[in-house]
Amino acid sequence: MPEFQVFFNDHTSNDFNTLFTSLPPERPYFATGVPGSFHGRLFPNSSLDFVHSSYALQILSKVPKELLNKNSAAWNKGRVHYASAPDEVAQAYSTQFAKDITTFLDYRAKELVMVGLMVLIMPVIPNGIPHSSLRTCAIFDFLGQCLMDMAKEGLISEAQMDTCNLPVYFALPKEMTQLVERNGCFSIERMEKTLPWARVDVLYVQACVMHLRAGMEGIVKL
Q1: Exposure on the CB side of residue 192, measured as CA atoms within 13 A
Q2: Which positions ≥6 away from 134 have C-beta within 8 Å?
Q3: Rounded to whole angstroms, how far apart are CA atoms 183 and 172?
Q4: Which of 197, 218, 217 is nearest to 208 (CA)?
Q5: Cα–Cα distance between 158 and 45 in angstroms, integer?
């Protein structure tokens, strides 16, 4: 019977003990935790047969520096995201995403064996749809409005509000395709879409709120 070694990766601040206790005790694989950012190198050369990333690649390695420059056309004053921002802000996000994906593909290409496979699950914006029209992006506008209200009430300063930008970018499918093809380390075998937002029941809304807090709390916590 073949043996499998599974590596779970997350930031060093992740509670790996909780992860390990949640795994089935009679699991048919060996489990290991690997702390570190997926934006960097994680494994030795040709040490992986399969890579799976789920809802992670939309997180940028850093906020585009243009967003914090008062002299830049992409200065994002009064907003925390590009959803309702000028095109220059969205372009700055897109450029940073392209850099991050290129680096991610380069590192994973080194870590995977020659015939290795990679499955990436990530939120995207349908081709031809403005980013400002999606409910996913609207959530970030609501979050920004909450921070703006806190600034008006004196709970945070205006400077804190202006320097808070969420490092999250939702790419277009064609954008991701172009980045993979330009990189040249991988070929796309299949690209499929799902519609998780088709569910609108109360439990799903609660789950969305929990996921938003889990992903953003560390970023906006003051």
Answers
A1: 7
A2: 83, 125, 170
A3: 17
A4: 197
A5: 47
Strand ranges inside 79-207, DSSP E: 112-121
Dist CA 147 CA 164 (whole Å): 9
Contact 80, 165 (CB under 8 A): yes
User: Which tokens is 79 given?
Assistant: 């907003």
Task: List pLDDT tens digits, range 74-126.
Answer: 999 888 899 888 899 999 999 999 999 999 999 999 999 999 999 999 988 88
CA 49, 52, 53: angle at the middle one, nearest 5? Answer: 145
DSSP 8-state secondary structure symbol assigned to residue 194: -
**Residues whose CB is less than 8 angstroms from the CB of residue 2 and which lie 6 or more positions away in sequence, other chains included:** none
For 61, which DSSP code?
S
Predicted TM-score (pTM) of this structure = 0.87
CA distance 166 to 63: 7
With tokens 């790419």, the residue in question is: 171
Structural domains of the chain in order of their starting residue, each with its CATH number: 37-220 (3.40.50.150)
Query: Phi/psi of residue 8, each to 5°?
Result: -100, 125
- pLDDT tens-digit series, residues 16-50: 899 999 999 899 999 999 999 999 999 999 999 99
d(CA 23, CA 25): 6
Torsion from C-alpha of 195, 196, 199, 205, nearest 10 degrees: -150
How is residue 132 written in tokens?
Answer: 């400002």
